[in-house]
Amino acid sequence: MEDATLAALRTASSAMFDIGFAAMVGALATPVLLQDGSSDWSARRARRCRGLFAGAGFVALAASLAWMALQAIALTELPPVAALAAVGGIVADTAFGRAWAVATLALLAALALAGAFRYRRLPRQTLALMLVTVAVAHASAGHAGANGFGWLVPAVAVHELATGLWAGGVFAAAWTVLRGAPDALDGARYATRLSTLATAALAGVALTGAAIAWHGLGGSLAPLAPVAGALSWGVMLDAKLALVALAVALGGFNRLAVMPSLPESLPRFARVLRVEAVVLLAALVAAAWLANGEPPAV
After folding, report:
1. Is residue 220 predicted with pLDDT exceeding 70?
2. Among the four residues 29, 125, 166, 233, which has the most C-beta atoms within 10 Å?
3. What is the pTM for the complete model shown?
4. What pLDDT, in 10s, does the model give residues 241-255?
5. Rounded to whole angstroms, what are the CA distances from 188 to 34, 128, 145, 255?
């Protein structure tokens, strides 16, 4: 398989993992935003988040398995079937392989636990701990863990979790909660809580993202300059930052221009949120490209 094809497939699998993981975090957090609702609408939407959690989890799990298979092909330079047979050795002999295994097993455990509690109240704290484990192990399997467990690993893990609360919360709202006709009072309460959560998560995304980007750029802004005929790491970082800025602007518009007239403006709030969800999807794809590329400082 050609290097360019492998790189594209690794980026695609990473993007699907990031999107699935973010949706899992959002699906787990959303019922908390819906609690205290007095309508059947709130209860039904909270139950639907279970389906989103499971579906997103299977997407993330499949993407994780695909990513390791592609890594095995790239590392061994063997045909796909022979390379897959070497995955066990990669897990046993490499730090990133062991970190990948921990992340994948934690993800599988979270799905199994959620399935076991299908008809009962979900153990949210235990599931949240499992998602934290996935985030830390996933960060350790990437560039952040290349030189061992330093400050960059928890920074990337917090960045992934904060992104999940923001982007995943938006995904859950756009795909599950605000589809159809929401209850006016409960919908307005939910929209207010979602905006507050997204604002807090955005602060975490910005702080950790700035530290991670500065490290990746080697403490210099020079790599951000466009390079003729090349899609450099710095240029893709520019694109990601532009997408994040657009998503922030959409969220700010909802908070400042739409929310004051809730609940009457709930349909408009939902429309803007769906656009924000698409922008955040694109930002996560850009982030996956960055994660599979070579930062200037590496």
Report:
1. no
2. 166
3. 0.92
4. 899 999 999 999 999
5. 10, 26, 42, 12
